[in-house]
Amino acid sequence: MITRHLLLLIALVLGGFPSAVAQETNEADANPPEYTAYTTIHPEIPLDQLKIMVKPLTKAELQVESDAWFKLLRGKAREIAAVRMGVKKANEALSADDEEAAKNSLEVAESITKAVSDSTKADEEEVTGAAQQKLGVDADAVENQPEEDTEVKADGEPAAASDSDDPTTAAESATEMKDEMLSSVTELQDARTALSDRLNIVLNSLEAKGGDVEEYRTYSTEVSGIELDTSDAAAAWSGIVGWVNSKEGGRRMAWNLGKFFLILLITYFIARLVARIVNWLLERKLKLSQLAERLIASTITNVVMLIGFAIALTALEVDITPVLAAIGATGLVVGLALQGTLSNFASGLMILINRPFDVGNVVNAGGVTGTIDQMNLVSTTFRTFDNQTIHVPNNEIWNNVITNITANPTRRVDMEFGIGYDDDFEQAEKVIQEVLAANELVLRDPEPVVVTHALADSSVNIVCRPWAKTSDWWQVKTEVTREVKRRFDQAGISFPYPQQDVHVHNSNASANGSV
What we know:
Layout: H1 2-15, H2 26-30, H3 47-54, H4 59-95, H5 99-135, H6 139-143, H7 170-208, H8 214-223, H9 233-245, H10 250-285, H11 290-315, H12 321-337, H13 339-354, E1 362-365, E2 368-375, E3 379-383, E4 389-393, H14 394-398, E5 403-404, E6 410-412, E7 415-419, H15 425-438, E8 449-455, E9 460-465, E10 467-469, H16 473-491
Antiparallel strand pairs: 1-2, 1-5, 2-3, 3-4, 6-10, 7-9, 8-9
Helix pairs in contact: 3-7, 4-5, 4-7, 5-7, 7-9, 10-11, 15-16
């Protein structure tokens, strides 16, 4: 069984070579034998176990292992190319004008596929045989074991063309051979993908230990994927259908996409849970502003989502290492290009530390007056009283005067009423005081101030300064103003408007004879 061989491999990693292979003699120590690849004892070795096998190997040993897996991959790629060439020859046979030419094309197709298949099989037996000999495993026992996870034929050959004695015509034989070849291409592509995956595992370990893997990766990339012959509709359709139905093609992609979206969904719920936990801890354990709490929770949520997205990309078999390296390499350039953004970032941190305002405060800052809606490390969002949303850079706010209109629980309402010079100002003061006393929203402590303080050009001005809760400020201002106007009208107290007297003096110019 494959499992027994894998146990032998693990024993090799953990405990060294079997005694039949490793001769612990002084002579052997002085002249160590040439290293032989052993992870290729079975081309179907599970990926997770192969990762364990290659981890303790040195750079030189991994180079040998890479060459062995590369040889298997190259043979499989040649076999696929030979079968595709056989399909071309089968098409030539189908379009041949005479029976003899068709038979010659079929013979060439059969010869090409058989020769390459035999060569590939010989290479595979050489590689696996060397590994079996190194581990002291009976080759016959390995060959007699059923291959559990493969759909590829043992020899990878399509069925041979019909013999000359076969009553079927060359066209019928060509059609049958073509169908079998197209079917075998899909199976061979599955085997090639499996070998490529295992080679990549070895290459990853080799690269991590300083080895040069560029040539291997380039070849693996070039021979991977499917190729569709658009000039042959049957071959193209067979390739598409075969890829969709193959376990290393469409089914593998569907499984990877399912894992991708599942990871994103799980990450989304984890991010929301983490955000709630962070909010709960910040509200109960730390005295931070709502802006800071929201920003911290939002940042943590974004980080969790970013990590989840990176993990999800690995489910699609995307190597994110080059992406991370590119981000790190361009970090300095981006930092220089975004100096203004970095300034806003620093201003945002200063706002969060000094807490000049919070969510829901009415603030005049950066030339904008409105209610603070939200904030990030780059800008602050205001919602104005006419329901406009304005985003102000943090640098514009921190570098200018910040007026927090609703920071305190109470505010003074400053009003001024002007009466005519002919009106009784003491009566007017009394009326205003009565209006304030009757208004339930006016605070009694501090006590309201009503006093005549200025003799203007056209009026006597009376200052009215009651106190109210910040939330009642606008309502107190409007109610007191309306009620004072109504009471002044009832008492006959006028509100003068600016006026100017113009005096015209006539000169005695006509009496003097002057014009």
